[in-house]
């Protein structure tokens, strides 16, 4: 894959960083992006130290703004970088009752998880379909299938990712395009998510979680195989099965219990 280039958002840590390691291992050129002022440069250095000779380009971008996704796309154009694989990993959440949570933070969640993902998909998918080649990995979640009280906005954004991406998968089939789109739906994972979402003290926050590495490995293999959807762990498969067999009202009650403080 020495002539293939992947762009990964949210690449400084967690699943995004582990996905970058997967691509680096197979010789892809890496374009790594995350919010300015974070650990992106350190992440790039770590990958270069682990995988000698890997080519990396670092493009910081604040995807919580209207300009961020456009800046990221335009910077790849300015540098003459053809993106063969797009990984829309960037995302974050917020825990708590909707009437009590911070509106500005939740607007940022919608910008990153929905608007930035939609914008980058639009811009890069157009190029891919013109070339009739390319792959896109969209980061959904098990809550893409489940109503999630106390994470209402986050879960709704992940439901958008699922619906949006499945619709585009059908459009690509109709176009008879060789471009593929894969939706990765991980369960609760050992990343910085629960700290950022103020959910570390919840039952799910204190529970045993999947590792970012096993989630990334599953998503990477599914992407290369052109799979439509990846449920990377047994827990993820069980969450999906629950969404099929139980009514939404029961699922909402079950998920609400998981978002309660561990002491309750």
UniProtKB/TrEMBL annotation:
InterPro entries: NAD(P)-bd_dom_sf, Sc_DH/Rdtase_CS, SDR_fam. GO terms for molecular function: oxidoreductase activity. Keywords: Oxidoreductase. The keyword Oxidoreductase applies. PROSITE patterns: ADH_SHORT. Pfam families: adh_short. This is Short-chain dehydrogenase. It comes from Hymenobacter edaphi. The lineage of its organism: Bacteria, Pseudomonadati, Bacteroidota, Cytophagia, Cytophagales.
